[in-house]
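In response to reviewer comment 3 from the previous cycle, which asked for concrete evidence that the modeling workflow produces usable outputs, we include below a single protein chain processed end to end. The sequence was submitted unchanged, and the resulting structure tokens are shown without manual editing.
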Amino acid sequence: MREIGHFIGGKQVKGTSGRAGDVFNPNTGEVQAKVALAKHSEVEHAIALAETAQPAWAAVNPQRRARVLMKFLDLMQKEFDTLARLLSSEHGKTFADSKGDIQRGLEVVEFACGIPHLLKGEFTAGAGPNIDLFSLRQPLGVVAGITPFNFPAMIPMWKFAPALACGNAFILKPSERDPSVPMRLAELLVEAGLPAGVLNVVNGDKEAVDTLLTDPRIQAVGFVGSSAIAEYVYATAAANGKRAQCFGGAKNQMIIMPDADMDQAVDALIGAGYGSAGERCMAVSVAVPVGRKTADVLLEKLVPRVESLKIGPSTDAQADFGPLITRAHLDKVKSYVDLGIKEGAKLLVDGRNFKMQGYENGNFMGGCLFDHVTPDMRIYKEEIFGPVLAVVRAKDYEEAVRLPSEHEYGNGVAIFTRDGDAARDFINRVEVGMVGVNFAIPVPLSYYTFGGWKRSGFGDLNQHGPDSVRFYTRTKTVTARWPSGVKEGAEFVIPTMK
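The workflow returned the following structure tokens.
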């Protein structure tokens, strides 16, 4: 049985806690590895090494720090397919989808390579008599990232790339469900020239998380996961004097206007609703057709598409999506489908009993489609995180704007229409953090920021883009005067520009 430890001090080390978790093969349901779960002292050791290594790394000029990331990009390209297969084997997403996971992470690394420009401060010569005013952006010190199972390559890179570029040391606590790719990323960074101890990976559960949240040497924490845990991480980090950016759940909706290109809308719903078996924080889980005729036309086209989805093992290049991450999560998703029936929603396509020939013990489930879902139902209110799409019929445009705006989550939303006025009005009025127009998964590119509103996001700075540089640095403002020989005497009032 393969054993996965931690990556501390520039190398892989065995766990010493005596505790371990199972890493499953989602295709077969079998345990394929054991991952060590770090105890308090192991995390403290990683933090101590990071604290020791960080000052020298911060003293490396930004251009040379960027060169390490550039070398990392080169190494990643050479191992791209190998990493994608490894990711697929632990997560269950298809090989093509795994490559997308890695690529979206690398795009943030590419953004972070521009750190010499991004760290430039401001300067004002002659702000007052013989006075210059300027600002500096300096690293925080040791920072941490707690990342989820559904993007085991992308989100760690979203966290550590800008943090390292800014001169911080980083402690990564990835999901214990699929830890192998994050461990390999750390190895490649050291191979690219990152000094030992600057990036450490500790695998673990709540004990490891709580150590990161309470240790005074950790200056900032980034988290992605469920809203309940995001709120806990944010509150605990803040109570311990740390900066925090925490991203939680989602219930992304797609509005289909009567004038929308219906074929385009259906294609978008199929991909955004069922890709990666719905295990995405940006998955569309609610379709909102506006008007009865729109709903009828949409469902006429949508039902056969859901029924014909190709589900297969992650190794099947023809599969639309693969298995869910664990048997426990599969059971949870199925229980939501049971609940939707009890709540009175109409199940048009039932994928609960899907079995994959030759993989009968795998975590497979077919696509499910509900109609006549209402906002008071739990299957509308709560994040299911599986291949389940709910159709909520809106009687008019105003109701379609109100539905996502009033939902407790405010992560992403999309509108499909040919009407520019309607799209512009929707963009300005909808109370959601990321909006797509004829674009179902509006994940911003790396040089913009990613983040939702309400219970989808806790904290005032988002992931990647300019916000990441702000989050991983603090501003120092300097007021400097060089006397020219004229003595002005003591000043007893506050300086002003009068």
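The first helix runs from residue 40 to 59. We consider this sufficient to address the reviewer's concern, and the full set will be provided in the supplementary archive.
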